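Retro notes, structure queue

What went well: the backlog is down to a handful. What didn't: a couple of records were mislabeled last round, so from now on we paste the full input next to the output in the thread. Example, using Serine/threonine-protein kinase tor2 like from Verticillium longisporum:
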Amino acid sequence: MATQQQIALERLETITRDLRSSRVSDDVRKRAALQLRELVLVCHRDLQPDHFNNIYHAVNTRITQLIAHGSDSAERLGGVYALDSIVDIDATDQATKYARFLQNLKAILRGKDMSPMQAAAVTLGKMCRPGGSVISELVESETQFALEWLQNERVEERRYSAALVLRELARQAPTLMYNYVGLVLDLIWNSLRDSRQLIRSTSADTIAACFRIIRERDQEMKQAWMEKAYSELLRGLQNGAVEYIHASLLMLKELLEQGGMFMQDHYPEACEIVLRYKEHKDGTIRKTVVLLIPDLASYSPAEFDQSYLHKFMVYLIGMLKKDKERTDAFLAIGNIANSVKSAIAPYLDNLIIFIREGLSVQARKRGSVDAVFECISRLAVAVGQTLSKYMEALLDPIFQCDLTPKLTQALVDMAFYIPPAQDTIRNRLLDMLSMVLCGEPLMNIARPRSSWP
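Corresponding output:
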């Protein structure tokens, strides 16, 4: 009869196959990692210490094989997911565990395969949460290593790794990272202007994490670094290269979201910058512009409404005519409505036309229509009963769509903020559920049996 230890080892082999297989989806690998965590927890609870140690050693051996000796990205990523799933389990002393885990993560973060790097950096960040002398030394050594790569490294994999590590350490160990924020913000511009969009976006996330650290701790330092960032942003726009413009727009987004009163004097210039680049030939720049417009609306709703709302709405409504840009435009319009409230009402006639088109059979065949439902939700919250006269025009295409969480939320918001529509929405939703569950409308099911043919 198989012992608990033998059963656990067999289960480990099954889990490892899912972790390493390149033929399974990423979701399957993540589920396998969760199963591994459960296996370790059960063994830790139920087995004798020496038997558990055998299992734990076997688990760590499999993880090392996947990460250090994996033949492809799938194996290495599976190994990182596995390590991440057990990183917070206290099954051995902290120093020994961290030394082993860090060695595995370094194999990824110092390597050439960029695919598992983000997951590895996230796991490294989780390791740095608890605090203590071991953590302090870990944060110091990894930060210094990342800063060195950020400053001198020409290999893109290393620049990407450095930005990821600094981002996660700033997010998960802000107190320990406080003393390094100045250095990070000073050196991050090279990677923020990298030729690869992925590295630029990751560097922007790093800046966001650093801004959060100083925003909550040091107002004088915040003011100084935001002034420097804004000056550097303007200098980058003068350069004219795509990566420089994109970097400046990413920095502008962070300043709008976290700058507080600092951006008040710069607000008109920020709006003009975004307007200037809305027709840029580069798609990444145009996409970033669309993401910035709701930030401008959120920062100063009254000034945005008075001076810029119409200009940007004309632009975004024009985007709704283009299949590839429609999703971003719907999301942006919904977020703008969230800020300007009833000021969005004059644009409803046009928006309803494009919402109906965005929910058409042809549009649904092209992909998800969740962005349309998000836009409807925010419009309902923003204008309330002003949307009443459009109910019939909206509900017909809505109830031709498949039932999804976003559709359901849109109906909930419409019913709450447009009370006269509550009964109609409830009855049509019940009919829709009846069709899904029973294949016929609720009224047919509710008829007395004597009236059935």
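Agreed that this is the format going forward. Reviewer comment attached to the example: The chain is about 75% helix and 0% strand.
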